[in-house]
Fold each of these.
Amino acid sequence: MTQELRTRIFSELDALVLIDPHTHIDALNPASRTLADILGYHYYTELAHSAGMPKEQIEDPEISPKEKCRRLIENLGPLDNTIQYSWFIEMAQKFFGFEGDRVDAENWEALYDVAEEKMSSAEWASQVLEISKLEAVFLTNNFDDPLEGFDTSKYVPCLRTDDLVFHLTRREVQDRLQHVAGAAVTDVPSLRAAIGGLFEHFKSKNARACAISLPPDFAPARVSEGRAATAIDAVLRKKLEASEADQRAASNYIFWTLAEFCAEVGLPFDLMIGVNRGVYKDGVFQGQDLYDSRVSMIQYKELFNAFPRVTFPISVLASVTNQELTSYAWIFPNVVTNGHWWYSNTPTFIEHDAAARLEAVPRTKQIGYYSDMYKLEFALPKFAMYKRILAKILAERFVIDRGWTEAQAIDLGKQVLRGNVETVFGYK
Amino acid sequence: MTQELRTRIFSELDALVLIDPHTHIDALNPASRTLADILGYHYYTELAHSAGMPKEQIEDPEISPKEKCRRLIENLGPLDNTIQYSWFIEMAQKFFGFEGDRVDAENWEALYDVAEEKMSSAEWASQVLEISKLEAVFLTNNFDDPLEGFDTSKYVPCLRTDDLVFHLTRREVQDRLQHVAGAAVTDVPSLRAAIGGLFEHFKSKNARACAISLPPDFAPARVSEGRAATAIDAVLRKKLEASEADQRAASNYIFWTLAEFCAEVGLPFDLMIGVNRGVYKDGVFQGQDLYDSRVSMIQYKELFNAFPRVTFPISVLASVTNQELTSYAWIFPNVVTNGHWWYSNTPTFIEHDAAARLEAVPRTKQIGYYSDMYKLEFALPKFAMYKRILAKILAERFVIDRGWTEAQAIDLGKQVLRGNVETVFGYK
Amino acid sequence: MTQELRTRIFSELDALVLIDPHTHIDALNPASRTLADILGYHYYTELAHSAGMPKEQIEDPEISPKEKCRRLIENLGPLDNTIQYSWFIEMAQKFFGFEGDRVDAENWEALYDVAEEKMSSAEWASQVLEISKLEAVFLTNNFDDPLEGFDTSKYVPCLRTDDLVFHLTRREVQDRLQHVAGAAVTDVPSLRAAIGGLFEHFKSKNARACAISLPPDFAPARVSEGRAATAIDAVLRKKLEASEADQRAASNYIFWTLAEFCAEVGLPFDLMIGVNRGVYKDGVFQGQDLYDSRVSMIQYKELFNAFPRVTFPISVLASVTNQELTSYAWIFPNVVTNGHWWYSNTPTFIEHDAAARLEAVPRTKQIGYYSDMYKLEFALPKFAMYKRILAKILAERFVIDRGWTEAQAIDLGKQVLRGNVETVFGYK
């Protein structure tokens, strides 16, 4: 009975047309060209490497996409238990009519060829969106992205600010900022002016959020103007030679300035809390980052108090931080729970984390899910995974445990899947 | 089959007459007078505020109880997913014959009027206890509470000591202490004498526990007599101007002294570990506290070793601390697990935390639940929530997973719900 | 339907002949002689003590094994809810034909006598292995264990290194090391030579791993040769009087040296992360250790990067660390998840932790379980507990939630139970 109930709820949720509120899609090149774009996603390369495949075999610059696929598929056996592998199979089934439940040395080439043919169509990206029931996807754009050449109501810009906050010590970042600002950035006023220009530009292009990923030891603090002047001066002039104290003060100042502009122009500020970059230094591309789960939302106390009018949709990397996120969203009007990020984006953690949110955070303050994808094909299996878990939670914990009607449960599911994306990000 | 099993076990647990071992009931004014006393509970005001209702609308001193209810009910829609909302509906159904599953603009006024009429009866508090199958409730009394005018076998006093440990720096607290001591408190000996008097007074009034809530960075340590003398002197004379080091040493000294008196007079010492006060400074009344989940029971190592004869019933604010609590109760004879506190008092966390305790801590060392309520009406829905989860755990994890008989499972449930309250607190 | 599915999967898993990859078995005395060897296991003595039994009654050196059993059994009532108690009953049933579900004052003596008779057989250890379907068990040998007098293909040696890393400050440890080295250990070169000799000896005796348990604040770091020389000199000469800094540097140097030898001779290095020793100083034998769950795998970043060719099977003491372990095993090729250790070896934590690993870590990189036992009889109930939970996860999360066939689920179960023990430790 429970399983039928889950299936019925899933069907209703699955009928919904969605907006994906956080992705890394390149709007000018949104879909895959070959299966290598799919299998080249770090979720596969890092797992294949972890299971023993040498990095050199994966990242060999000389090989063709087809050869890359051949090599990777031969190394997927040890991962066929993972949920990530199931995404691959679901994509093969839904987009390319694949009928098995394993892709291996025997059958991969036919799949590759079918995929390549379909992907070669000029309509492929549109077809993926159609099949995936996706109306729009949010991007994560570098601050100097011209945001030109695409439909910003379908590919919705968001301002990514990691470089500004954490890498202004790099000459390249300073150059890009001055280039996009059209003026020298030499001190606090010119830096603020440049940042203000970014917000103006992004807003004019339908941007719906400012976003940043943050290391576990980051604790935003307001920096005095005097201290900011010294720190920004050091960072701009000494770059990577600036003292750690100056670098930290500069990061804090810029972060705070971003929050001020979010307040001024009315943009939500997506915080993605908890990642340590480059922990496994010999890992594959995008497969080097890990974390320290000893992080607390208390580090953001001053920020949440200082910016009551900025909405902070927050993702946490570790499931052990989810209760704090739940509690802070229950108390702070400006804190919203946002999806299930990266290492917490697997069923056991999603189930535990989503259940805790659904029963304690106001229903209007929960963004259920985003795909975080780099290529459009991934939204379908990732959202499907989430919707199955959401249906399970709604069936078991709301209909059965709490006596809700199916219709009530489905309404709640639809709201966190779609309705809140519209209201929180002012989409539509 | 599982659901029927759960229902049968729940029925047996639900037939039990209970003692609620931790509440904030005012014994002279234990039940609600209007629905505003129920909806004014911080669980509703803070969630309504979090969902967008301005604090000023909630805390407007000019409005009537009825107007306050009208306003709050209009703002409950965004919380109707929460377990807290379900408590409200269950109270409306069980106490006032409400038949729907939503209270809204259409039907609230009739409910308000029915409630007001029932609550106006001189027997209302007794009726609530009767309907709730509550035999007694433990209070949490300020140290200078005269404990007069009520039946202390029904409303059982407990000595709350937060003010003594953390706020002796306040003139008002010093004045209250001297007043109740009937003597000047000027140094360590007079302070000890005053505290000893409190214990004597409370014991004479049937007190069953000493209780305190503690911030996550508190780590009790024994303080030497010399250091204590300096610190207490500084705190008594300089008050809020005392140095942080003196304040900390004074807190530690007083805390340790409380444990000594608990040992002397034979009172359990309820520790509620992990809360940070006033994190959201513009939050509604009692809706400002949050936490840092980076806390460890190792901080209490010295205490548990030093006081083998004091029983410490312990509540932790964050579910991530529950495994440590479970392990420490498994090893230390004087550590008892105590209920599911505040931000961990929602079904997903209760289920995970209670299951872990039930399978690894001696059955005699677990206090299943307390309501933490401010008004009597809340025990019913809160205990009902817990009993449903307890029945689920017993059905799934004991009867099904481990082959227990239903009778064995029900016995375990009854022991953690009621039996252990009697033995741990020496009630009856 | 789910329960039948679980039962079918369990039966298949339960038919497997196993290798137990981590125990504390004494190969010369592997099985129990009386029931007192079973009930004397710290899991029972510490729980009985925690529930109120005085340590003196348990550890009275004057009493017979039978009297010890009588006393303990009279104190097991308060623990009959625990999973540890269920192990005892399962042993009584499977090894001694006991038919009840409680051992108490009425029936214990008959059980004791039956057990004593069976245990007195010269074949008892073999019978236990046979009944338990155990082909081999890994030991945890002190560095100066001669490893003589037993079949090392059945009782597989592993080099335990806690003493070397953390207790070289003790004269007794230095003496043992010099004795086994057959040479004075006076400085870094002679220490390295002695350690090298240990590895050579253990390898010659079929050792399959080096192992160590680590406190939560340990963060391995490479130590320069100069610093090592000073620190080792201080530790060897001043022993417990060596400064804390020297002790820490010496620990780090020795730990790093062990990893170097693991790389050289090709041994996996089992890391058991998170225990604080002697927290409850008046606890019973082996019932004094607890932990601080605030530990992160990031502390091992440098180690994992420095030794890409050493496999690190890792156990974590706290379930809150399990997600980090899962993520690090997903990214680092040399990190393998290893069993469910001690305070996390209870069903609720195993279920949550194992489910998270099974869906995100390559299937080749997970050691499902080890018993950690001191006497052979414990493998049966401990593995049975794990297999039931594994069957539950495979049924609910793979067959039902993800549409796997039963055969696929069983294959995955068999691989983590047995196949990976062979491949990771090079057994067979």
Amino acid sequence: MSSARANARDGAEATRVCPDYHAAVEMIGRRWSGAILWALSEGPHYFAELSQSIPGLSDRLLSRRLRELEQEGLVERSVHAGSPARVSYSLTDKGRELGPAIRELRAWAKRWNAGAARP
Amino acid sequence: MSSARANARDGAEATRVCPDYHAAVEMIGRRWSGAILWALSEGPHYFAELSQSIPGLSDRLLSRRLRELEQEGLVERSVHAGSPARVSYSLTDKGRELGPAIRELRAWAKRWNAGAARP
């Protein structure tokens, strides 16, 4: 407690949370986004495959999240000729570089059995 | 694309997203929770210090998030005798072990300037 106590006593400014980190943690933590990024970290997926990988996620919300992740530059969309044309999704470099953070979080989650602790 | 295409063709089950990871990413990504965990990763804080570290977060929502993080076993609360009594918050072992994931995410966020890319 000593540093907290000292800060409180002398009125020093508390360290502000890094805004880049703050934006990033809420972006990957947005409902279902972290799951989509995880699925795509295993490789490119067609829409139907993503939908299958993430039980409970509606197609409507999956489309919306994919559009957001595209806007954020994490995911790219490819259209494959054919009838009907098929659309696949993959991570960009920016998305792929989230890999170490996602893996650390997964390791933590497995260690602490985070799924069971959910309130 | 070869593996995505192969999966789609032979109808193999897509890999399900790990439920522990899924719970964890949405827990730390819940609005403001990631910021609170970050602030506490620097050491124990009194309530007022946390509030100062995270501009834009109301005291009401800060209290609520701290209670949730306590229930999830990430944060612990200590009451310090005095008049008025003061309450400080610190990370538990479980909370501290999120450190590597949080640091990886921060490194990524700084590299990609995630705060600016927010839609």
Amino acid sequence: MVNDRLTTVNFIAPVQDLIPKVEARMHTQADRHHPDLKLALDHLLSSGGKRIRPAIALLTGKMLGADPDKLVTLSAAIELLHTATLVHDDLIDGALLRRGIATLNSQWSPAATVLTGDFVFARAAKLAAETESLPLMHIFAETLATIVNGEITQLFSSRGLVSREDYDNRIYAKTASLFELATKAAAMLSPVDEQIVEKARAFGYNLGVAFQIVDDVLDFTGEQATIGKPVASDLRQGLVTLPALYFMEDYPNFPEMQAILSGRPFNDGVMDRLLKSIRESGAIQRAMDEASRYVDCALVLLVDLPDCPEHESLKDLANYIIHRKF
Amino acid sequence: MVNDRLTTVNFIAPVQDLIPKVEARMHTQADRHHPDLKLALDHLLSSGGKRIRPAIALLTGKMLGADPDKLVTLSAAIELLHTATLVHDDLIDGALLRRGIATLNSQWSPAATVLTGDFVFARAAKLAAETESLPLMHIFAETLATIVNGEITQLFSSRGLVSREDYDNRIYAKTASLFELATKAAAMLSPVDEQIVEKARAFGYNLGVAFQIVDDVLDFTGEQATIGKPVASDLRQGLVTLPALYFMEDYPNFPEMQAILSGRPFNDGVMDRLLKSIRESGAIQRAMDEASRYVDCALVLLVDLPDCPEHESLKDLANYIIHRKF
């Protein structure tokens, strides 16, 4: 099933044998616990996701010579950490669907949802410990704090007010920090020196920033059926992402934008007009150009890393990030 | 302030210099994060608690020769793990007060409360990693999973239905697992062999079971003003603890008990009559006798551990657990 999801790009080929092991490792984390936890975990994992974080960790680690078993453990830890944050996010947002599948909070009580998220955090931490690397545990825990701090900052931020710096901080916390963890931790499990670890980290960072910018672009350009949520869902909630930020630079007093960011009720016509204007402006292309610059940075960082099939796959993956449609 | 709380017993004397370091270590965990997180953490830590878990970890570790700095880190990690679970617990229960202080969820949105709990988990994990002990990280993550699994089991359990085995599992997950972590982890940071680590673990386990049984007794015998919550609050929620379990053994068909456990509305008169009957029955004494047996077990385990002021304090602490009034 995981492979089906990824047939559009073949970047996981060199680690194809490891992906099912990551899946198995995640699914068994609720064994010997309450049966409903097992059901919840299976549901959460079945709801898909591109498994892009595990893929990046596996490819980076295999390229650099890490032990495959450790990489499987690390990848499962990272994907579960990601999953746990989504469980609490969806609860907080009251989201009913994620990638077209019912969220946990849409079917369970808030209490059960909070605790299931906590449980998944606990299992992610346990898996991280099983990599038997203390420096890895440090950055794992630090990344969790970064992600949560980012969510709290977003929660407490004034609606619609955002600078480029705020945006950069937010997407680092939300996405790039975990991509960076995936590549840095994989390198830390490999027989390589500090400089290579730093290059791997920076590669993951740039990939993560590009990934989130493209996500934010897709929120404006995608179709609801493809991206699995209403178009411009961020802006509807008063969240200004890069395309909107660029648009506001060019049109600082656009009435529909001001209406929507005011937090007062607005009708569909207002949003439709704004969306059309953003789509027709240069803002979308500027944001995609920015994402491309981050991908270019990532590709430059790859040059000094070992030439091998995984290296080629990481290049493909970087390009996929820019060209994906969902 | 911490010392004031503990003047009724002097068991922290041998680690008196370390307790303020634990406090400081905890308070600084939100530095360089969102200012409201700092406020929230300060509020959570000011709301008190007896700091019994840090005391046990510090005394055990100092008795066994652990490095004091590592013990401070461990103790802060354990108390923050405890704090994080309370934040989510109070949210789930809708509790407005804990130890007479407003809970976070009574003042903040559910979203902010969930995320603050997550943040405190993250900082606890970070501190645990800073002990630089991988086996310690393993048991730390495992304990978090045990605690959360216990809460989920309780959430999904049928009202009023409980066996002694269920009760034992619940209080292990709720309390004894963290006491056990405190003493075992402290021993693991000490230059001692496996047998001593196992004795320390079992000491913490027995202490934790006794502590929770006494907590459950105080829920029946205490005054609301002293214990900081309504008397028999567990039973009001359909939760059967050891005194109620013993009472039901002697009076299997007591009408007021059946009325309350049925989940249907009941008036104060029903609860008052049941409470009076439980207090006048032998159930309270039987539960206290059971707690005493666990304390006795703990004291026997101490015999083989080094004779020193910390050893004496751990004895005092074990006795305090039985004789405390809140």
